[in-house]
Write a structure and sequence with these properties.
- It is a single chain.
- The chain is of the alpha+beta class and about 220 residues long.
- The chain has 2 domains: about 1-160, Glutaredoxin, CATH 3.40.30; about 170-215, no CATH class.
- The chain has helices at about 1-15, 40-45, 60-75, 95-105, 120-125, 155-160, 170-175, and strands at about 30, 35-40, 50-55, 85-90, 110, 130-135, 140-145, 185, 190-195, 205, 210-215.
- The strands form 3 sheets. The protein has a 5-stranded mixed beta sheet with strand order 5-4-3-6-7.
- A hairpin with a 2-residue loop joins β10 (about 205) and β11 (about 210-215).
């Protein structure tokens, strides 16, 4: 009986730590795995809502969340419109996070815990379980302390007045429906490619309405 009580206590403790307990954002400056600097308050002052995805590279639920976060990234402007997405790793180095991007096709700018400053951000936001996905408003208030399950992110956006725009004004649904019988390949900026799939640069594509990830090795 004591063992059962202990297990339940640990379980509920983890659940409580699965979200930040903050209601106002804490500023941070980090560098993503491709060398780009990011400051949270600067981005908020530009009028963006910011989604912060706290993760680590071997976290199963984090891996499972990648397709949903990619969809949200694409359907809400690819970091160019109302919403800016960034992934903050808890414990890995740049090389491990780059490998995560390659293995699972994550589109979000990603910051490693060790090399990019991510671990300090995780600590500042008191996040203890992963993934934890939060939504921050331009006024620096935290609108959602944990979007869970991650699949509810679209509902959360709608509840906070955010509208789907696609990348560069191109609706991702329009791209997915573009199929007139021949093989058609689009990237997530809406550009059509007229070369064989094996010759494409690494990245995510829509091939005859289906999402496919092109790795560096065909």
């Amino acid at each position: 009986m004591k063992n059962l009580f202990f297990i339940l206590l640990v379980y509920f403790s983890l659940q409580l730590n699965a979200q930040t307990n903050l209601t106002q954002a804490v500023d941070f400056t980090v560098t993503d795995v491709h060398g780009n600097s990011f400051n949270l308050f600067d981005k908020l002052d530009e009028g963006f809502h910011v989604v912060v995805d706290f993760f680590f590279t071997t976290c199963g639920p984090c891996i499972d969340a990648v397709p949903t976060l990619n969809d949200a990234y694409n359907q809400y402007g690819c970091n160019k419109e109302q919403v800016y997405f960034i992934s903050i790793d808890d414990r890995n180095n740049d090389a491990a996070v780059v490998q995560f991007e390659s293995d699972y096709g994550s589109l979000l700018p990603a910051v490693s815990g060790v090399d990019g400053g991510g671990a300090a951000v995780v600590s500042a936001y008191n996040v203890g379980a992963f993934p934890t996905v939060i939504l921050i408003a331009p006024d620096k208030s935290i609108l959602s302390q944990d979007i869970y399950p991650v699949s509810t992110i679209f509902t959360t956006f709608g509840q906070n007045g955010l509208t789907e725009v696609g990348c560069s004004g191109v609706s991702i649904r329009d791209i997915q429906s573009a199929n007139d019988g021949e093989t058609r390949i689009f990237d997530f900026l809406g550009r059509e490619w007229h070369i064989p799939f094996k010759d494409l640069p690494k990245g995510l594509y829509i091939v005859n309405g289906e999402k496919r990830f092109k790795s560096s090795i065909y």
